[in-house]
């Protein structure tokens, strides 16, 4: 019996969440007295997983899986779990894996806990700590089914090297045409920038920037910090920025080490979507902006004056320490 993880990837490379999931799985496996097996899709070099505790990799290579289709990928994970006799299956909390988790749980008649933020509180009974109420609270969830599926909240555990055996095995699951009822028409890709999904730092802008022509303030600051850029819902609704950059409860949730909000008042839906970020910095000219109530650091002032100064200071700091 092995613990199974789905090591998520894109364009032939592992996403950062795959290494966090492997790190987490290694510790859970040690508690359970078992090993970690990862299933990968269309990745040629999987050796990096061994650094973070993976003992065996089931390598699936199939051209039909070139585009993400939730039902097909869920079927692959199900068959991998059955092959390994896995009683605990771990996935991350990316958009793709959120789709997958419930499908995998149903297919294996497993209990499912999403938004897991720590190692199991207990293994007998099996209990985990989870985010609840839009990340405003925690709860302890007990899973009593024989097979258990967990969705690890992003950036909740960290990445730690803890070497595993790293054995590799080709795996050819049966994939039927009924797995492809949904057709992928197009994929929206971010090129030349840090993606929101992989970012440790996000710089986000709101209507306080007054127009798309001023977005350079956000991009310049993000470039210095090696950060991803994002926006509030009104900004994407106005067409200033693509909807793929909209973060919040109704957009992409983020759980970064640092979230900088520029000119965003802080509607409850936006705050709920970024509340898991560890440090929140708010720059706004309105001292009564709701965002200040949840900020770790707040600057009241004109973004058009503050952000360029902050960017230059950071540039100077980097130059001194490079």
Question: Which helices and strands appear, and what pairs or packs with what?
Answer:
Elements: E1 2-6, E2 9-10, E3 13-14, H1 16-32, E4 35-41, E5 56-60, H2 70-84, E6 88-91, H3 95-107, E7 111-116, E8 122-123, E9 126-132, E10 137-143, E11 148-152, E12 167-170, E13 201-205, H4 216-225, E14 228-231, H5 233-237, E15 258-262, H6 268-274, E16 279-284, E17 297-300, H7 303-321
Parallel strand pairs: 1-4, 1-6, 4-5, 5-12, 6-11, 7-11, 13-14, 13-15, 15-16, 16-17
Antiparallel strand pairs: 2-3, 8-9, 9-10
Helix pairs in contact: 2-3, 4-7
Main features:
322 residues; alpha/beta; 7-stranded parallel β-sheet; 5-stranded parallel β-sheet; 17 strands; 27% helix
For the largest sheet, list the strands in their spatial order.
Answer: 7-11-6-1-4-5-12
Q: Which residues form runs of ≥5 with pLDDT under 50?
A: none
How many separate helices?
7
Helix content: 25-40%
How many β-strands, per DSSP?
Answer: 17
Determine Rg (CA atoms, Å): 21 Å
The general outline is globular
Task: Put the structure in a nutshell.
This protein is an alpha/beta fold and 322 residues long. It is 27% helix and 25% strand.
How would you describe what is shown here?
With 322 residues, the chain is an alpha/beta fold. It contains seven helices and 17 strands. The strands form four sheets. The chain has a seven-stranded parallel sheet with strand order 7-11-6-1-4-5-12. Strands 14-13-15-16-17 form a five-stranded parallel sheet. A three-stranded antiparallel sheet has the order 8-9-10, with no helix packed on it. Helix 6 (268-274) links the parallel strand 15 and strand 16 (279-284). The mean pLDDT is 92.
């Amino acid at each position: 019996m092995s613990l199974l993880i789905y090591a998520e990837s894109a364009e032939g490379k592992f996403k950062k969440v795959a290494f966090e999931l492997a790190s987490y799985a290694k510790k859970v496996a040690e508690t359970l007295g078992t090993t970690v097996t990862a299933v990968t899709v269309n990745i040629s070099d999987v050796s990096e997983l061994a650094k973070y505790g993976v003992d065996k990799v089931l390598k699936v290579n199939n051209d039909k899986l070139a585009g993400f289709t939730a039902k097909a990928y869920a079927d692959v994970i199900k068959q991998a779990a059955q092959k390994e006799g896995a009683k605990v299956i771990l996935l991350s909390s990316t958009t793709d894996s959120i789709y997958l988790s419930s499908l995998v749980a149903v297919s294996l008649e497993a209990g499912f806990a999403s938004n897991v933020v720590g190692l199991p509180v207990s293994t007998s009974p099996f209990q985990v700590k989870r985010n609840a109420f839009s990340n405003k609270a925690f709860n302890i969830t007990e899973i009593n089914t024989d097979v258990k599926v967990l969705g690890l909240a992003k950036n909740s555990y960290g990445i730690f090297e803890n070497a595993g055996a790293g054995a590799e095995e080709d795996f050819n699951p049966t994939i039927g045409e009924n797995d492809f009822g949904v057709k992928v028409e197009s994929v929206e890709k971010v090129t030349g920038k840090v993606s929101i999904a992989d970012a440790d730092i996000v710089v986000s802008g709101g209507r306080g920037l007054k127009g798309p022509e001023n977005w350079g303030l956000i991009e310049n600051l993000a470039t210095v910090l090696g950060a991803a850029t994002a926006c509030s819902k009104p900004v994407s609704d106005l067409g200033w920025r693509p909807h793929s950059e909209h973060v919040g409860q109704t957009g992409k949730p983020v759980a970064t080490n640092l979230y900088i909000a520029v000119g965003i008042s802080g509607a409850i839906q936006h705050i709920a979507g970024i509340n898991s970020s560890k440090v929140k910095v708010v720059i706004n000219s309105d001292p009564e902006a709701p965002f200040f109530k949840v900020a770790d650091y707040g600057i009241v002032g004109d973004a058009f004056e503050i952000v360029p100064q902050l960017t230059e200071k950071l540039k100077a700091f980097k130059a001194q320490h490079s």
